[in-house]
Automatic annotation (TrEMBL):
InterPro entries for the chain: cNMP-bd_dom (IPR000595), Cupin_2 (IPR013096), PKS_Associated_Protein (IPR052044), RmlC-like_jellyroll (IPR014710), RmlC_Cupin_sf (IPR011051)
Source species taxonomy: Bacteria, Bacillati, Actinomycetota, Actinomycetes, Pseudonocardiales
Gene3D superfamilies attached to this UniProt entry: Jelly Rolls (2.60.120.10)
Cross-referenced PANTHER family: 16.7 KDA PROTEIN IN WHIE LOCUS
Region (Disordered): 111-130
Domain Cyclic nucleotide-binding positions: 13-80
Domain of life, source organism: Bacteria
Protein name: Cupin domain-containing protein
Length: 130
């Protein structure tokens, strides 16, 4: 039997930035939470869209589209979907907490990415502990 998951409590179980935790699954998708601050890395998911919901703080996502580069700003409570194959780079000046929907096994740095800085975790999601 599954039990309700309180997202604030789930987020309190870890401190690592850009290192998502899997809180549950829906069909073949992971529901992940992450804490972020600073810059991620330019990357793209070739075969899947990426869903973002900002739980707290503010997230900016830079996008490289056919029409050129642009950025979208997501305040607390906003959702945004990055279409499959679109290069993007999330960042948060002051930090944010996110909820993400991605197919199980999706790598957090996509199928194509720039060189990874040490603060970005290349993972398919970690189990939630605590």
């Amino acid at each position: 039997m599954t039990e309700p998951i309180e997202l604030t409590a789930a987020l309190s179980t870890f401190d690592q930035l850009w290192s998502p935790r899997i809180v549950t699954q829906v069909n073949d998708y992971d529901v992940r939470v992450a804490k972020v601050a600073g810059e991620h890395v330019w990357h793209a998911h070739d075969d899947t869209d990426e869903f973002f919901l900002v739980l707290d703080g503010e997230l900016t996502i830079a996008l490289r589209e056919q029409s050129g580069e642009r950025s979208v700003v997501l305040p607390k409570g906003a959702v945004f979907v990055v279409p499959r194959g679109t290069e993007h780079k999330p960042f948060s000046k002051d930090g944010a907490s996110l909820l993400l929907f991605e197919p199980t096994g999706t790598l957090s740095v996509g199928d194509r990415h720039d060189e990874l800085p040490g603060h970005v975790d290349a993972t398919t999601g970690h189990a939630l502990s605590g």
